[in-house]
Amino acid sequence: METTRNWLLPLLLAAGQVGLLWPGVGPDDTPGGPALLCVLAALALETAGLGQRRTVPVRALACTLVTRVLGGLAWPDGYLGLGTLITLYSVAVRCPVPVTVRAVAAVVGAEWVLCAVEEGPRPALLSDMALALGVYLLCAGLGEARRQWLAGRLVAARRLAGAEHARRLAGDHERRRLARELHDVSAHHLTSVVVTVDAARRLQDSRPDLATEALSFAERTGAETLTALQRLVGVLRDTDRPDHRPMSGRIEELVAGFGRLGRPVTARIPGDLAGPSAEAIHGIVREALTNALRYAPGAAARVLVTRADGLLRLTVENAPPRAAAQGAGGLGAGRGVAGMRERAAAAGGELTAGPTPEGGWRVCATLPDGAEAGRSDEHGRRRDVLREQRLADPALVSVSVILPVSCALALTEDWSAADRRAALPALLVVCGLLVLHALPLLWRRRAPWAVLLAVLATAWPGPAAVAGWHLRSDVAEFLAAGTLAETLAVYAVAAYGQGPGRTWPAPAAATLGTAGALAAVAWSDGSVAGEPTGAGGAVLLTFFLSVLLAPVFAAVWGAGLFVRRRRLRALAYDEFAFASSMWQADRAAEAERQRLAATLRDAVLERTQALVGAARRGDLAEVAGAARAALAAMREMLHSMGDDGEPGGRLAPSPAVGDLEALCRALRSGGRDVRLRGLPEAGRDLPPSVQVSVYRIVEAALGAGDVGPARVTLRRWRGTLRITVTGVRLAVAGPVAERLRVQAAAGEGRIVCEPAGTLRVVLPAGAVPAPVQEVSP
């Protein structure tokens, strides 16, 4: 399919050019001898260049530019040279704006040199040069607009791929998040209870008052643990509310809580911490101080957060322990430092931890400053808006001026030198009016209605200039060529105006305004086509022009609505598919939360409730046993959730082509007739990224919701893997088709969705980059 798209147009152009060489079809002065050979060589070279316009557009443009000069010199009247326009469009679509500008300059320069050689010093030279400039600018502007549309579609595809990735891993991510929170909250609270109660039991003979404080602390901390755990899993709805307190205050409150346990803790924290980095700092400080409490009881600790160069630097340091920690072994879940690194990495930073030369422990983290990042993002968005349509709109404005001017210059070719000198001031005035008339089109995307009104208003200085300066009739009629500006303004209202159902007055207003302005020019001049006219003739001319212009403006308005509808439909498909993926991700995460809630209730919450009850009864030994039992249950639960202490956790391996057999067996066991052909030959020696893409595409197609028989065929051919899936009518349209296109594009492949319910996908069988949907968004 891609080969056909690349070569169909070049072959059609070559056939048309060869047809012009046939006697009696093209111009009378057909080339002969060496000139004919030059034309045929240029035609062959142009066809070869056009075939490569999608892969190497700049090289293809250089090739067609050479053939344009060679064919134009060999056969000036008959060689078309349309390949230059097509390759320039490809350059604008696939290359940045600076490259496109240089390409336009090179093409226009070569075209002007060719015009100068062909025409010589004649008045028609300026007309041809202006026409060439306008056509090439229009071609580049359309290509730039297409490039921006494709760039937007690529962003939407990546966004959808990220949503697909989040949907597939929502359960794993939610399980890891809950495991991290369970570790941080439970380990912090329950470890504090164990350390405090053990200290009170050891010192109850020398300090009896410490037992009362320990029981009160255990009761209060146990209740906080219950509330925190219930909030995490949504067991109690009235506690599942966001904490709107400033993050700096919450960190200071956390540090003060550790200070109440009897250890000296100092802190210096900025008062405006916010965002993900502040959340990460809160979790890292909590974990670091908990570890200090566990392994260095009684040692002084210091918490320092500084801001510099758009970064937040956190340091948590504790002094060496005063004595060997007793009873601390086995309290942790075995992943404290790994959990802190995971938090820092999730916020876009990094963390290091290790002993100090004095024998203590230091945790250092570097995180992005949320406030600075927010300001940078805001400035970035503003710059993108100002750089929007850097070439397309200026090109259209230039064309709407250049084309009328080139037509005017072409009409003056038959004038005498004296007439041209006499008409020069009038021609300059007309050119100035045309520029003023087309200038508002620069803002046609941002304010289309205002641009239409401005274009209609700037058409009326023409009649005033004709009446005030008594412009010649053969010069005043050039003002009619400015109607192109009204056409572009009507299209802009239909394509970009708010409320497509309310844009219908645009063609009517353009028809009446344009017809009235042209009739006013004729009435001010006093003649139409050399015949005298008055006020009555101007009215009749207005009616006649309205009848002629109304279908034109209506057709342009309809074209704008059609393009608008197609683009909005594509965007709606993107939004629907994205929302569907996110909804499924939410459902998967909710199911994981419900499953973990039941496990948590049985494993940890009951033991924590026993801890609170024992503290209220005043039994220190029972409190210590219940706290240790809750810690052990929490640790066992974390390991059962697959959280083995590594930042990545344990995940299932990526699927491969060989797993398609298991997928089809599962569908057949569910009652659906699914047949697979082409394994294992087609799947042999495929790169892992291609295998993942193949599995995901087949999985999405078969999982679209069809219940009838389906066939999956895999075939290797010329370095590609061809996948054909039949019997999937629900997968060839709607959000499923959009997801399949994203997955095929992520694997650098092509996909064709046939209405009969057949999918045809072609993927490269060699090594390609990892698919987008397999990368974390």
UniProtKB/TrEMBL annotation:
Query: In the Enzyme Commission scheme, what number(s) does this protein have?
Result: 2.7.13.3
* Transmembrane spans: 7-25, 391-411, 423-443, 450-472, 478-497, 504-523, 535-563
Q: What class of enzyme is it?
A: transferase
Gene Ontology terms, MF aspect: protein histidine kinase activity
Keyword terms of this UniProt record: ATP-binding, Kinase, Membrane, Nucleotide-binding, Phosphoprotein, Transferase, Transmembrane, Transmembrane helix, Two-component regulatory system
Which reactions is this enzyme annotated as catalysing? ATP + protein L-histidine = ADP + protein N-phospho-L-histidine
Annotated DUF7134 domain residues: 394-567
Database matches in Pfam families = DUF7134, HATPase_c, HisKA_3
Histidine kinase/HSP90-like ATPase domain segment(s): 279-369
Which residues are in the Signal transduction histidine kinase subgroup 3 dimerisation and phosphoacceptor domain? 174-239
Q: Which PANTHER family match?
A: NITRATE/NITRITE SENSOR PROTEIN NARX-RELATED, NITRATE_NITRITE SENSOR PROTEIN NARQ
According to UniProt, the name of this protein is histidine kinase
Organism expressing this protein natively: Streptomyces cyanogenus
